[in-house]
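Allow me, if you will, to draw on your knowledge of protein folds for a short while. The matter concerns a single protein, recorded as an amino acid sequence and a row of backbone structure tokens. Kindly check, if you would, that the fold set down in the tokens agrees with what the sequence suggests. You will find the record immediately after this paragraph.
***
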Amino acid sequence: MRNNLSFTRPVVAGALFLCLALPAHAVVNGEATLLYWFSEDDVDGVSADSGNAAFRGELWFNDRWGLSGGLYQTDPSGSLSGVDYFNIDGKFRVISATDNNWLAVGVGYQDIDAGFASTSGFRLTLDGHLSLLSILQGYARVAWMPDLDNLTLGVTNLSGGSATEFDIGLMLHPVPLLGIWGGWRTFDTDFDQSGGLSFDLKSDGPYLGIGLDF
């Protein structure tokens, strides 16, 4: 990640404090996943394959309060520059029927760094899990970033930025502690302002992952 280390330090410190402040009887579960995102980047109509490794983690406390984060990086061929997508979210389960059947809302922070330009802002999230079989779950995640920071392209300063993220997939749990993920992820960033100036960046494609599910 290129420019958000100063932000991640207090976030990590806050997460550690939260874990240490939990009562001894708190129930903690979550996941830690290494992924490969077979993405394609499209920048103002110019596209290229951009697959690269990614990481996502999530913790839940007493099946009610959650903390999640992810780092997705693209590595396009040709003249396009790679993009780093970093996010961290706090969540609350509005429906928590079981460990594997729930719906949560959240708020968090998003950083988008394309090398030649970067932006960031708050995000609102909605995600859920649904148990399909004893070893198979479906999941979906949606995030909306309505007010991204202004984006500077050379001498042009663009405002009116927003972004959306969609992630849908399946998780196979063949043995204890092991999870295998597969799905599709889309991240779409748009800057449109009066005067006809605009900038569009989209990264999407399937992914596969393996990691801990506890």
Summary: The domain at 5-213 is CATH 2.40.128.90 (Lipocalin). DSSP finds one helix and 14 strands in the chain. The chain has one domain: 5-213.
